[in-house]
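# nightly structure sweep
# worker-07 picked up a monomer target from the shared queue
# config: single-sequence mode, recycle default, output format = structure tokens
# input follows
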Amino acid sequence: MSDETIRQRLVLITTPLSDEGALEALRRALSGGDVASVLIDPAGRENAAFQTYAEPLVAAAQEAGAAAIVIDDTRCAGRLKADGVHLTQGDAAALAEAASSYQPKLIVGASGFETRHDALEAGEAMPDYILFGRLGQDADEVPHAKTLSMAEWWSAMVEIPCIALGARDVESVADVAQTGAEFVALGAAIFAEPGKEAEKVARANAILDEFEVPVEDA
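# output follows
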């Protein structure tokens, strides 16, 4: 084990955002402090509507220095010159195909892997990250126990970075950070109270400042 450590970082998920006011909400959030990436979720929108919705969000994320990652729509990601794609179906074969097709030009990540076996199978595709937690299901006060246990196990066993989903309370960042996950994802905790997005991002970063993750020796 190396004495070197890394600082965990915040990932924003746009799932709670409606069409109206989404850009302003994201801009406020991005103004609040360090954000590694933004996962832009169709959340039920049809292809054309999603591209219209996603285009300004991709630009806003990139302008703020965050990676813009489009969920489940590789064509939209390409058209908007996003930084990456994220697949949610828990399909290791689809993930392997995406990694082969788009890396290293695009970041490729995935979620939906419910067991350790499935997660390890997904890891064989060498994605840029794996996310634990179901998008849109972060309405509880505390993170799901399974999300925490999977993230803790993965972080201890596998070199591929992981993102773990928090809960609707921004203080849940501490619970997630304790797993050792390199990234903490928040959706409802940031966007549920319009106008407070910057404040919530600042608080999340203040909590992450208190944690350190050791870097494994190569």
